[in-house]
Predict the structure.
Amino acid sequence: MDPFWETLERNSKHMNLQGIIIQILSGISTGMVIFLIAVGLSLVFGTLRILNLAHGTLYMMGAYLCYWVSSVLTSFGGAFWWSLLLAPIGVAIFGGLIEVILLRRIYDREHLDQYLLTFALVLVIGDLCKLAWGVEYHLVTTPWPFQGPVFVMGMPFPSYNVFLIACGPVIFIGLWALIHYTRLGKVIRAMTYNREMANALGTNVPRAYTVVFMLGCWLAGLGGTLVVPTASAMPGMDMIVLIECFIIIVIGGLGSLSGAFLGSLIFGLVNAFGILVAPRLAVAFAFILMIVILIIRPWGLMGEPE
Amino acid sequence: MFRVEKLIKSFGGLMAVTQVSFTLKKGEISSIIGPNGAGKTTLFNILTGHLKPDSGAVYFKDQEITGLSPHRICRTGIGRSFQKTNIFPRLTAFDNVQVALMAWQKRTRNIFQKADHFYQKETDEILGSLGLGDQKDRLAGLLAHGDQRLLEIGITLGTFPEFILLDEPTAGMSPEESHKTMELIQQIVRSRNLTLLFIEHDMNIVFGISEKVRVMHFGSIIAEGTPEAIRANDQVQKIYLAEEV
Amino acid sequence: MKPSMGNRKKTKSMFGLIAVMVGFLILPGFLSEGWISLVNEMLILALAACGLNLMLGYAGMVSFGPAGFYAVGAYATALILIDTNLPFALAFAAGPLVAAASAVLIGWFCVRLTQVYFALLTLAFAQIIHTIIFEWYAFTRGDNGIVDIPIPQMLKSITHYYYFSFFIIILCLALLWLIIKSPFGKTLQAMRENAQRAESIGINVRLYQLSTFVLSGFFLGVAGSLFCGFNKNVFPNYAHWIKSTEMLVVCLLGGIYNFFGPIVGSIVYLFLDKVITGYTQFWPLVLGLIIILLLLFLRGGIAGFIAERMALRRRRGEQA
């Protein structure tokens, strides 16, 4: 029999209720982590109107920084939690420098120039990571207190993943509060809506751009840090996550916070479903969903037509 | 020749065009004036297919053209220029007009011949009538603003329209330039026997060449008549006076 | 005065072009097989980039997925050669035709959108092509790729294949040149400059964009088929977005608003690639820095820069 059909038959034996629930939870935790990264990309696109192809690479940098800080601080307790604090900040600072030195020069350029510049950053930052940390996979042990499993309907599920699932809504609420209750948030909303207006209203647009970009980088770094205990830091993780982010923000809507959340959730679940049903084609499921959305509702589920 | 019936268009809760109806005779030169936000450009966008109206109909030579896409409407013989200069900046002035001619003559599907010599005479003629003949090899983006507005009209003429809509053709020009441009337009329109409907913001420009004037305010036509009648109209005066204040 | 100067410029360009072509023809007499191979690879990449540039530089359509059609062309040829007994000519012709056919299908979906969304959709489709090739083991041999593809005895030598490629590529470039200089080509440029205006002068922009997409797919397919015969192997990564970006970079490097830009770009790119990977494994870092410098300081690409210099010198010559 064709290997494809063999695998399908084998997998369908796993489709009992517990197996499905574990897969769903797994999908949700994947979704929540990707939400952090996708929302940063979406935020930057919504306000700065730049699709930052290097966003995934900044996520990767966050992962490597997490590994580095953890290995430097192993003697101290709670090394991972220190990296969780420091690594995203490191990525944000790095991002701020990039914005000021490079990105500022291309805001009024054509889209192609912007894509190529951010792609060049993918190459440069990616290789810098390779220079600093080599090509081996780097793992960080799951941090205390999340080292054991919890039991869902009798089946084990990593408690760290439960922590990840919790992170999603926490960050969502934090960002929502930021956007709706702070001055920075007001500026973001103004810029998303109309850049020229925001400028005319006296906002220091260049500085606001830098801050928003740094926020996006911070979120990418956070995602990278959180992922390392489960998936290890390795070359190539940047582009995989980038393409996944594209899919999510297209599904959810570019520039929309709730869209990114919804899109990530859908992505995580579709992926999990795909792995259950046809593991080798699981990758394609999400792409097909993206194509369908792009055709019937190109501005995404929660976005607005331009 | 051109008939508009009860056009309505709203955006969200905002009524941009409310129950607009009017008729134009062949060869008529008329204008639509009104303060900013009155809905003039929205009306033009509906007439040329860039927007679909919520209800109402548009007829050209007794054929309904409501809701057709812009390139189909162009084929019926309607041409349009835009308020914001809408040219092809990195093509030469010559190419700008030539492309319109080629599109009109359905030559754009041709991939087997060199384009340089197509319709050279006709393109030169249009450029000449606008006073742009000596700049034909300059990149359109590098032309002076006034010349770009003229090129804009040149592109419109390239599709040999019978009816042209010009949206604020003198936008951004000095008073003398505006006057000269309107004279030029009048000359072209008369020599090619076109029907012209234009939007203008400045009443003085309108009075020179417009046979009929329609005033739009908050999406509907509130007055219609000869320039003198409009000038004497109290309601219109109030609108413009209120605007100056 | 003017017409004769125009003619002089034309004859100078003609001579230059013929000289370059003759140069390529006699190259195998002077170079080792390794170098001939490299030049062959450069020419194939140049054709792919020129095919992409029809969309990119002339029609203003930014695609992230040209490698998809390149791979379709390569695999179509490879599969026919390896699974059937059909003649090479048929297999070779099938590549671009299948690529063009898939471009019709994919393009139909893609041209309904613009800008960022268009780019993302082309990326998605290219990735789907990659996944299909990678996973459909029974048909495409999956990630093992297809190796030892049989090509006619006559073409097996490196020099012979070089001349074969050169002939096909020159033919395709001539066709591309014709297309660009034709009314169709001018229409594409008008669309690039101002799609709304083009629409309002009677051009069905969507239809022309689809046509460009298909033509581009066709030439990318030719390049894919050529590379299949050149390498005698095909792999799924021919469709990977890394390959797509390589083509985009080549166009940018040479200059997208110049017909010869992608050709110059591919020669420089592959040359730099071979040289620099000899010294360091950090070729991506160097490439990234080069791209940044290009974008900031040399916006017309290499060909654009040269064209500007020539125009400047000509203007000075006229004034003197």
Observations:
- The radius of gyration of chain C is 20 Å.
- The interface with chain B takes residues 178-179, 181-187, 189-190, 193-194, 196-205, 208, 257 of chain C (CB under 8 Å).
- Chain C has a mean pLDDT of 87.
- Residues 32-239 of chain C form one domain.
